[in-house]
Amino acid sequence: MASGIRDKVAILGMGCTRFGERWESSAQNLMVEAFQECLADAGIEKKEIQAAYLGTHFDEVNVSKAATPLSLTLRLPFIPVTRVENFCATATEAFRAACYSVASGAYDIVLALGVEKLKDTGYGGLPDINSVDSYMVGSNTTAPGGFAQLATAYSRVWGLPMDKIKDAIAHVSAKSHANGVLNPKAHLRKAISEEQIKAAPMIAYPLGLFDCCGVSDGAACAIVTTPEIAKSLKPNQDLIKVKAIQVIGSSGEEAGYNTWDGAHFATARVCSAKVYEEAGIKDPRTEISMSEVHDCFSITEFVTMEDLGLSPKGGAYDDIMGGRFDLNGESPCQVDGGLKCFGHPIGASGLRMIYAMYEQLLERVPEERQVKNARMGLTHNLGGLPSWNVCAVSVVGRD
Amino acid sequence: MIGICSYSGYIPRYRLNRGVIYGAMGWMNPATIALARGEKAVANFDEDSITLGVAAGNLALQNVDRSSVESVYFASTTLPYKERLNAAIMVPALGLKDQVRAADFTASLKCGTTALLTALDGVKEGNSAKTLVTAADCRLGKPGSPQEMLFGDASAAVVVGSENVVAEYKGSYSVTYDFGDHFRGVNSKYDNQWEDRWIRDLGFDQFIPEAVNGLLEKTGMQIGDFSKVIYPCIYAAARRGIAKKLGMIPEMDQDNMQLEVGETGTPHSLIMLAKALEDAKPGDKLMVVSFGSGCDAICFEVTDNITKIPATLSATLASKADLDNYNKMLVWRDIMPADFGKRKEVDHWTRYSAMWRNRMLVLGLVGGKCSKCGTAQIPAADICVNPDCGAVNTMEPYPYADKKGKISSFTGDNLAASVDPPAIYGQVDFEGGGKFMFDFTDCKLDEVATEMTVTMSFRRKYYDEKRDISGYFWKAVPAKEDN
Q1: Mean model confidence pLDDT for chain B
Q2: Residue B344's pLDDT band (boundaries 50, 70, 90)?
Q3: N or C: which end of chain A has fewer CB within 10 A?
């Protein structure tokens, strides 16, 4: 019987670049920037890293294929390097691979680095991901249009009027903007009111401009090791341990079988249940101190809170409007600004989320956005569209 | 008895008021004010002659056993492909079997009736149990030209056979002349025409009577035997002259639908015939005449079966929406370059080998039904989508083109590169099982709602400018009665 990953791996160090429109920085520059911070935080030398994983998604406009961009850029001294790619959940996947490498006993100290250089496309939004086959039959879907359908479906399933959904998702975005203002590494650092959000130009009905996350350049990374090594290297620091990581892929039921209602993520429900089991969490609503969820669009965050069990089914509206996920609420969400305002360089985002939880758990962040007495931080990292996707959830905690 | 077993007319949804055209382009050619009455039918941005032909064909085949259709003829002077049989693209979209004789008829506006005569000959000679003839055109006049005012886009279809005949074939007469009234070389996008007076006085005024009289003489019938004489001619004065010359009473002159649809080219005689058939009584004799490089004149006698065919032409004529923006038409027809954004520059193109593998899905919208658990699904997959089944290689072909669905989610996307933003699309759940994310068409965002019924329509999905490839797939059309 598999015992899972709980408490078998500790985070030794992390790094994250400022996210944003980094016109002057290449993907390689960003990798080095995140790595240098991470290495300093870990307090080790580069040669002590025994294996490395690179997460990156749009290789065509970015670092090209394979894992060599990582080893060449960081001048890693002839160690095993692997590239992983799993849509927007890529960085959590890289982190998972690094953790499993340590937990298996194959290596003691492993690097996971995610990077994406999105601002060399010449246009807003994400590049197209159609394949030879899907281009012939796929609808003219973009990311906002794919996720916007959660809103029309949710309205149909729960009978919640579209204007109320608009109110709630405006609150979601306003909260993330308020948090982003406080974070110097965030891409978008401007407070926006709910009225401004609702009045913004429509991108994909009912999502307006401020319902959509930033499209950013950035990199984030982690060095993981065993709890024993972490303790010996940093005897005076709280140990931040990995409590659970799960990655779940769609089976095709959602897109092709008539049971899925279009108003939730089937993967996220399964993934979070497995994570809670792995982490030994009985009541996520009270045991999870804070979360970074995949708010690529405000409506994604809305329905995800239910899928993760952080809100009851059909209860996200009340929780959101009641301020539960605000910075000073019972269960703060997107304390660093989220994808919405910290930004979303695809291949880096999962590690950025873990970075946010790590910093909070170590109580390293400035007073105004420090979550008090946080013990367990959850990250939720999603790739694809509501109808077919990869969902990655992790929980990191301090004892 | 040989003749027409079924027929249809299809008028696309959008109509452009000719006053709108005049408002935009009248400054250049003030004389077009004389033509600026009524409206013309304009194909949607995702329609072309092939999709119009499929639309009419599927309407005509509604109550026909499709497996009995052994030949498919497509007539158009605006074929999307010079090489790659246009009719072959249509065969799966029409739900017909691969074992058919298919051909394109082109290069003359009378090729629709020529295709019809070829079909009648084939059935008569026992070479084809049933033959589908479909005709469509989307001809372009240059901005400011009379043709721009006159031309409309539409299609018609006729099923020819020997069972359940609604209009019996009684004979034909043809004349062919190299008469360059309208012409396009292989590289011409727009219609060219010679002087109206020559076309009217030498063309219509001589060829139509020659064909009609030839037919009367050949069949031994009198003009008075006919309840309708059907021929396309935009010149009102010429129509009056021809009627007088032939001894027609005014009721015999079938309306050419110029004020409602426009001059539609190849399908026009057949569209007028469809209208005449919708209004006909058993025993009526109809003469249909085409015009273009000569004339074909064909005689039919309506049978008691006529009441069994739905009035598709009138239905699609009535189901209309205003295209209130002239520039939109220019962009749809690629007359005016517009900025679709960098997103549109992504180079996707048809890999014909992949297209071949997927042809039944792409062109026919054929999914699968699991022979083990009975779950209908699209696309047909190697492994059944039902999580409680998961059987391997159990799919039997299951067509979706004729199925209705319900919208379970949708959006209107302004980010997606589209010729007609916002791109409206969503998840469709089919009656009988299966779901798929489709582009929606012939609708406006504020008319769309979840739970609405949709029907499927074959459309041009993309156009690859670099390689001159038109790609096709199916879209969902929200049902208008549910609005």
Answers
A1: 96
A2: confident
A3: N
Q: Are strands A218-225 and A10-16 parallel, antiparallel or unpaired?
A: antiparallel
Task: Establish if A169 touches chain B: CB-CB under 8 angstroms.
Answer: no
CA distance B137 to B146: 17
Which of A61, A120, A147, A149 should be substituted to probe chain B, the one whose Cβ sees the most B Cβ atoms within 10 Å?
A: A149
What pLDDT is stored for residue A131 in this prediction? 74
Strands B453-464 and B435-439: unpaired
Q: Are residue B265 and residue B234 in the same domain, yes or no?
A: yes
Do both B237 and B326 map to the same domain?
A: yes
DSSP-based three-state secondary structure for B164: coil
More confident residue, B203 or A214: B203
All residue ranges of chain A with pLDDT < 50 are: none
Q: What percent of chain B has pLDDT over 90?
A: 96
Residue from A108, A99, A142 nearest A124 by CA: A142
CB contact under 8 A, A145 and B425: yes
Query: Chain-centre distance of CA B148, in angstroms?
Result: 19
Q: How far apart are the C-alpha atoms of B260 and B298, rounded to whole Å?
A: 25
Q: What is the pLDDT of residue B483?
A: 36
Nearest to B415 among A122, A204, A262 (CB): A204
Compute the nearest-CA separation of B413 from chain A (Å). Answer: 4
Of A136, A156, A263, the CB nearest to B451: A156
Give the count of domains, chain B: 2
Residue reference for tokens 């269960």 = A331
Architecture of the A10-122+217-233 domain: 3-Layer(aba) Sandwich (3.40)
Domain range spanning residue B82?
Answer: 3-332
Joined tokens for residue B345: 């520059």
Can you identify the CATH homologous superfamily of domain A142-213+244-398? Thiolase/Chalcone synthase (3.40.47.10)
Ranges in chain A annotated CATH 3.40.47.10? 10-122+217-233, 142-213+244-398
Residue where one domain finishes, among candidates B276, B309, B332: B332
pLDDT at site B481? 61
Q: Model ipTM?
A: 0.94
B352 shares a domain with B314: no
Q: What is the pLDDT of residues B179-196, one digit of tens each?
A: 999 999 999 999 999 999
